[in-house]
């Protein structure tokens, strides 16, 4: 049985007054974006997010404030975008992920990613999970590792009798859990999730949220979400980003970063307070 709190406990906690801050844990990722550009467009500035081990960190804020950009910076997914340039650093266990000697493919081996739309490959359920393992020339027992990953993503019982069926034959929620199984198969330490529930119905969303809470016992998770209730339900830490429109720009920046309970119950900045209250979107 999991000793982690369930969603209902978290909601209860959020309705209680804010007491002492959560104890600090080891920082696994230290992401500091001084300035980030797409071509001449300054998309993000002054955003510093320390991500602590075995926690869920949420990025929230209005559309276009740079949440996905900041998340993609962490495992160098932005490198694939033409014109991307950034000043700052991303340290993973003290090592600079943007050091010239670091291979971005290797970065993604340790820092996996799950996307907004479930995107299983056009292959069997088994091969979807085995794909990254084969790519990395996995030397162990492939079947055992696939089963372990599917169990880890709380999907094993639903698919164990049809591992040869196409990954695309699953429901949307199952497909997203298959993508999570694929992401954890190579045993990354960190999982980045960009709006992982936005294409799912409320029941599948709740299932994935419960799964995230289970997964944080083993992984460190960072998530982008538009859904404030989701951030409140699952995240330990939350960063609120906003858009600076002064000087004719539209540059996202971090307004505040704190324990989720503090952000939702007693935020420091008026912008955060207004956003949480739904005074602007
Ligand atoms: N590939 C790209 N090329 C150019 N500009 C981009 C690119 N991706 C994002 N941007 C711009 O960077 C800014 C931040 O975008 P980003 O998608 O990170 O924001 P977001 O907060 O995740 O938005 P949303 O909540 O709408 O998904 C936006 O102004 C966006 O138009």
TrEMBL record:
Pfam families: ABC_tran. GO terms for cellular component: membrane. InterPro entries: AAA+_ATPase (IPR003593), ABC_transporter-like_ATP-bd (IPR003439), ABC_transporter-like_CS (IPR017871), P-loop_NTPase (IPR027417), PstB-like (IPR005670). GO terms for molecular function: ATP binding; ATP hydrolysis activity; phosphate transmembrane transporter activity. The keyword ATP-binding applies. Keywords: ATP-binding, Nucleotide-binding, Phosphate transport, Transport. Coiled coil: none annotated. The keyword ATP-binding applies. One of its GO terms (biological process) is phosphate ion transmembrane transport. Residues 28-276 form the ABC transporter domain. PANTHER family: ABC TRANSPORTER I FAMILY MEMBER 17. This is Phosphate ABC transporter ATP-binding protein.
């Amino acid at each position: 049985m999991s000793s982690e709190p369930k969603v209902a406990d978290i909601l209860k906690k959020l309705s209680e007054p804010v007491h002492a801050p959560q104890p600090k844990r080891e920082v696994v990722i230290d992401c500091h974006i001084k300035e980030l550009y797409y071509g001449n467009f300054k998309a993000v500035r002054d955003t510093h997010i320390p991500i602590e081990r075995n926690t869920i960190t949420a990025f929230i804020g209005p559309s276009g404030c740079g949440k996905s950009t900041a998340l993609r910076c962490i495992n160098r997914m932005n490198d694939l975008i033409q014109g991307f340039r950034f000043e700052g650093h991303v340290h993973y266990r003290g090592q600079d992920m943007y050091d010239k000697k670091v291979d971005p493919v290797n970065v993604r081996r340790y820092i996996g990613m799950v996307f907004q739309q479930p995107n299983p490959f056009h292959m069997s359920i088994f091969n979807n999970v085995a794909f990254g393992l084969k790519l990395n020339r996995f030397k162990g027992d492939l079947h055992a590792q696939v089963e372990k990953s599917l169990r880890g993503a709380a999907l094993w019982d639903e698919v164990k009798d049809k591992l040869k069926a196409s990954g695309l034959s699953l429901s949307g929620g199952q497909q997203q859990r298959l993508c999570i199984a694929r992401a954890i198969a190579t045993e990354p330490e960190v999982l980045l999730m960009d709006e992982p529930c936005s294409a799912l119905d409320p029941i599948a969303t709740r299932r994935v949220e419960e799964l995230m809470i289970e997964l944080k016992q083993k992984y460190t998770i960072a998530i982008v979400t538009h859904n404030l209730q989701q951030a409140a339900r699952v995240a330990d830490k939350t960063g609120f980003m906003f858009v600076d429109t002064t000087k004719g720009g539209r540059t996202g920046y971090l307004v505040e970063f704190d324990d989720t309970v503090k952000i939702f119950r007693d935020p420091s900045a008026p912008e955060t307070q207004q956003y949480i209250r739904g005074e602007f979107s």
